[in-house]
Each structure stands twice: as structure tokens, then as C-alpha cells.
Amino acid sequence: MRKIVLTAVLAALPATAMAEGLEDLVEARRGYYKLLGANMGELVAMVKGEAEYDGATAQTHAANLVTLTNYNLGHLYAPGTSKADLPGETRALPEIWDDMAGVQEKGMAFVEAVNELNEVAGLDKAELAAGVQKLGGTCKGCHDDYRAKDF
Ligand code: HEC
């Protein structure tokens, strides 16, 4: 019932105000993923030897990723925010809204890999490398199906 009321309120808003609101949501969504990417980037650099392995730093980035998995993204995936709705602004494929269960599944694999990484990131470089590789596979797993190659 609450959902229906909310829809009615949204429908009453001027179209431009709503489009702006949705654009803000998309920006926030992309910001979330940028945070994932920023932390992952530091870890990958250590694995590749572009940065020196440091257990405490690796642990910090792994813990940041755990923190990010506790964020509920649901509101950032409001209807009307796919690449089909806002071309040029987002790479989120419309398939996401047709297959929330599939997205959820990819999300769960990602959360699991983050938690595993967090267990080992501070131990040594080999453990970090294995954890990062597994996690990277779960990022790619979702991107392959639900993120467009370009905007
Ligand atoms: C459950 C699905 C899913 C998982 C898991 C996932 N992503 Fe994404 N990611 C997306 C989607 C969808 C977008 C496109 C968002 C948009 O353009 O609105 C995206 C966008 C991005 C972007 C681009 C942000 C920008 O500048 O527009 C980066 C960077 C990124 N993801 C990194 C990661 C990393 C790193 C991981 C794993 C640690 C990860 N993602 C895991 C779905 C996922």
C-alpha cells in the first residue's frame, strides 16, 4: 500500500524535477562503485607489485570493502535509472530490473568473496593475491551480465 502511495506522489512531480532526482541517484550509485574500485585498485596494485605489499594497508582496504557490503543499494536502483532511461549517464543495463534475483545472486557471491578476502588480506601477499583474484571474478561476473561496456 505504501508503495502505491509513493508511486502516486512521484507521478505528480514535474518530469524535470524527477529526472534530476534520478540523475542524482545514478551519480550516487556510480560513486558507490567508484569506492569499490578505489579500494580494489590499491589491492590489485599490491598484488601486481606496483605497490609494495603492506599487511596493514591491505587489511584496511579489505575492511573498507566489508563496510561497503553493509550498504543497502536498493534505493540506488530506482526504476527509471537504467541505461535505456538515461543514456550517456549510466551503464546499468535494463536487464537488472527484469532479473533482480539474478543480480542478488551475483551480489551474494561478491559479499562472500569480500569476507573471505578480509580474513586473509593482512597475512601475506600470496593470500592477498588469491583473495583478490577470487573477488575480481565476482565483480566481473556481475559486470558481464548487468553492466554495459560503454555509456
Ligand atoms: C551485483 C553486481 C555488481 C557487482 C558484484 C559489482 N559491480 Fe561494479 N558495477 C555494477 C553496475 C550495474 C555498474 C554500472 C553502474 C552505473 O553505471 O550506473 C557498475 C559499475 C562499476 C564501476 C564504474 C563506476 C563509474 O565510474 O561509473 C566500477 C569502477 C565498478 N563497478 C567496480 C566494481 C568492483 C571493483 C567490484 C568488485 C569488487 C564490483 N564493481 C562489483 C554492478 C556490479
TrEMBL record:
InterPro entries: Cyt_c/b562, Cyt_c_II, Cyt_c_prime. Residues 1-19 form the signal peptide. Keywords: Electron transport, Heme, Iron, Metal-binding, Signal, Transport. Gene3D superfamilies: Cytochrome c/b562. It comes from the Bacteria. This is Cytochrome c556. The lineage of its organism: Bacteria, Pseudomonadati, Pseudomonadota, Alphaproteobacteria, Rhodobacterales. The keyword Ion transport does not apply. Pfam families: Cytochrom_C_2 (PF01322).
